[in-house]
Amino acid sequence: MSGLVDLAVAATVLAAPMAGGPSTPDLVTATAAAGSLGFLAGGYRTAAQLAAQIAEVRAITPTFGVNLFAPNPIPVDPQAYAQYAARLAERADHFGVVLPPRPIEDDDGWPDKLDLLIEDPVPLVSFTFGLPPARAIRALQRAGSAVAQTVTGPAEARWALDAGADLLIVQSADAGGHSAVFDPSVRPPSPALPDLIRQIAATTPRPLIAAGGLSSADRVAAALRAGAAAVMVGTALLLADEAGTSAVHRAAIAGRPGPTVITRAFTGRPARGLVNEFIVQFEPRAPLGYPALHHLTSPLRKAAAAAGDPEWVHLWAGTGHGAVTPGPVADILRRLAV
């Protein structure tokens, strides 16, 4: 097993990638300074933006990873898209934004980001949303990177290992934000995280990193006892001083101990967040379709966030959000470590 894989599991508690703002270079470097490893979130960034963040982090620490969205588009039905856009129109008018009239189906700049990481390798590359081609995994490994694949069940784990992944990030349905499930038309499986770890650990000696609902040291300990080499936390870091979490998201996490649900209303693929008016109104009518729905609702969500209105913003959070506390990332990781 390479030293780069050992690097990925050297610490007990790692910092998960959180695309869309929370994962910043400051969060990643502070995590490294605390003796752990954090990930830059490549999702929703151009290759040039990601390259700039890599350079910023590398100037301070060599200990970090990069996460990419593996290409796994789910085309939206044009008629369903038009109907959903029409339902959103009144709220879009309220915020003074224009929604895309036709579906935007893109690959999040996948070829350029993959080329960047092959030409300028980082210690660890992780994937979510789907399984990249085996040739892409091999190219990254030849360049010197270890490769981690996010999975939600034993079948996905087998496919990832067959494709050559060095280690697995095992995500339970308790995780905040997008589920990594390969087939977004299927509800993410819901076994408790320790049970899910045991199921997958029984089939492979490769290192497993546990993720999902890890809001306390007791839950971290349970995941490690089940066979995880380390854990990865995201929701627990949303209020960290170094996180780029938006003001409206911070306020919601800090003061809104309500329930979370899995919804596809915002992006067209399942994600867990705090219940708000957007989910109540639109979840029953939301079609499947990523990234088309992400692009459709993005202007509305950005405008609502700018206005400080939490009812029309995605408030990603895992089931352990009630235990989240503010402070330096080093203190948060220390409280969770066992």
Secondary structure layout:
Blueprint: H1 3-8, E1 13-15, H2 25-33, E2 39-41, H3 47-58, E3 65-69, H4 78-95, H5 110-119, E4 124-128, H6 134-143, E5 146-151, H7 154-163, E6 167-171, E7 177-178, H8 193-201, E8 208-211, H9 217-225, E9 230-233, H10 247-255, E10 260-263, E11 271-274, H11 277-282, H12 292-306, H13 329-336
Parallel strand pairs: 1-9, 2-3, 3-4, 4-5, 5-6, 6-8, 8-9
Antiparallel strand pairs: 7-11, 10-11
Main traits of this protein?
alpha/beta, TIM Barrel, 2 domains, eight-stranded parallel beta sheet, 13 helices
Structure description:
It comes from Nakamurella multipartita (strain ATCC 700099 / DSM 44233 / CIP 104796 / JCM 9543 / NBRC 105858 / Y-104). Its cofactor is FMN. It catalyses: 3 propionate 3-nitronate + 3 O2 + H2O = 3 3-oxopropanoate + 2 nitrate + nitrite + H2O2 + 3 H(+). It is a single chain. The protein has helices spanning 3-8, 25-33, 47-58, 78-95, 110-119, 134-143, 154-163, 193-201, 217-225, 247-255, 277-282, 292-306, 329-336, and strands at 13-15, 39-41, 65-69, 124-128, 146-151, 167-171, 177-178, 208-211, 230-233, 260-263, 271-274. The strands form 2 sheets. Strands 1-9-8-6-5-4-3-2 form an 8-stranded parallel beta sheet. Strands 7-11-10 form a 3-stranded antiparallel beta sheet, with no helix packed on it. By secondary structure, it is α/β, with parallel strands linked by helices. The two termini are 25 Å apart. The model has no long low-confidence stretch (mean pLDDT 95). Helix 7 (154-163) links the parallel strand 5 (146-151) and strand 6 (167-171). Helix 2 packs parallel to helix 3 and helix 4 packs parallel to helix 12. The chain has 13 helices and 11 strands. It has 2 domains: 3-71 and 107-246 and 323-336, Aldolase class I (TIM Barrel, Alpha-Beta Barrel); 73-106 and 257-314, no CATH class.
